[in-house]
Amino acid sequence: MYTVIFGVFAVWLSYKLVTHLRRRARSTLLAGPPNPSWLLGVGRYLTKSADPGLVYEQWAKEYGSVYKVPATMGYSRVVLCDPKAILHFYSHETFGYMQTELTKRSIENIVGKGILWAEGESHKRQRKALSPAFSNAAIRRLTPVFYDSAYKTKAAWDTLIQSGSEDWAIIEVQNWMNNVSLDSVGIAGFSYDFGTLHGKYSAVADSFASFGTLKPTLLGAVTFIVGLALPILTKIPTDFRILVKRLNASMGEIADELLANMRKESEGEVKTEDKSIIGLLIKAEGSDAELRLSQEEVMAQMKTLILAGYETTSVSLTWALIELCKKPELQTKLREELLQFSSNDPSWDQLINNLPFLDAVFHEVLRLHPPVGETTRMASSDDIIPLSTPLRTPSGTIVDRIAIPKGQVVTVPIHSMNRSCEFWGADAKEFDPERWLRPDGLPKRAQEIQGHKHLLSFVDGPRICLGRGFAQAEFKAVLSVLIRNYVFEFRDGPDTKIEIVRGILPRPAIAGETGARIPLRVRRVE
């Protein structure tokens, strides 16, 4: 038995070596950090780092704007920190650069074969079907949903403050932002109220919350890192994988029920006007056969909405409150801008166009704290990537483009590019919304970066985040209500330390708390 296993491994290793040599012969020689481990590459080093984005930035300074890092079991990743190279990469996504097998399996395990999973023509078709539901007109109609969630939160917080002996209360805001996002995406996404803002139990919310209490394990880290070479390892029942299965089951039960009800409504059995995202999608199917998605695909879109709503906007809102606690003067400035709407709420148009400091806060949070830290894809064919700045290779040759062979893994470090001092200036690591309002605009180097507002937080190209308008409207509507009505301070004073805990996506937490908890002192505005 062991002889057979050893023989299979030897054949696999020989194949990898031959493939590696062929790939190397077709690629540009690039500098990069030494390999600390044949099994793990730099993966373990990055996962243990407090700030992987800073590590990528330091490597770019040392090895150039495009460099190569060792990955697991003989693989390598080409890291792009050159704006022109990044633009080329994103513009060729879904066809020229596709998700690794590890990424595809991970996405399928969580949300199924929806738009996050799809590539090529399948992705193009699914995106076309979903686009009308994320238009400005559609988001404008959904904005009252976001305000409704914010005012449910306000009512609950007012009760908490009134029940105490002080004019303030200690409130764990991250859980509330989770509930705001989950209830909002339920109603706006598919006309379903999870009810968490009213204290209703939700298996979905409970499953999500459990990720924040998971402790890192060596098995989990190794499985994730080595999964690039051996995707089958994603089937190992780690604690994370068990939670994913539980989350998938709870989202699936809700999606099954809602989809059945929506199908009945679309077929005329129930007469209602459903303006939700999935409702509009199903309505479009009836008028355009080209836009019809399979039941599996619609189910996957519903799960994707739940995941994105819970794991992205809620985290961005939490980070906004944290940053505004660190700099009370900015919180005051934002409140002064918003108090012009003390008797009513800004319309969608006003949220988007007439509140410059709120807009600056949104984009600064997005810059410093992108929900996803990097994009990693595999080249589906040989490619030539152009550079905006010539690069010196280890052999001394100056090149203005690099050759990428088929099968090469390529990474864009979003967190690094968003906070790089080379592009954003010496204060790149600081929370400074004013940078978006300066008369001379953003730094010239930052303007070389493409993407939404010269940020990569929503990525770019054919996979640019379809829900970016939804996220912006929800963030601004909710934050406008909270900042107009409350003052936020750290419970333990201005020196409170924030750390990152690992869930489905990284989340902030106050050091010493159990899980992803952010208890703040919240008092009403007089």
From TrEMBL:
> Its domain of life?
Eukaryota
List of residues binding heme: 465
Cross-referenced Gene3D superfamilies, in alphabetical order? Answer: Cytochrome P450
Q: Give, as in the UniProt entry, the pathway in which the protein acts.
A: Secondary metabolite biosynthesis
Q: Could you say which cofactors this protein requires?
A: heme
Family to which this protein belongs: Belongs to the cytochrome P450 family.
Q: What is this protein called?
A: Cytochrome P450
Native source organism of the sequence: Fibroporia radiculosa
User: Lineage of the source organism?
Assistant: Eukaryota, Fungi, Dikarya, Basidiomycota, Agaricomycotina
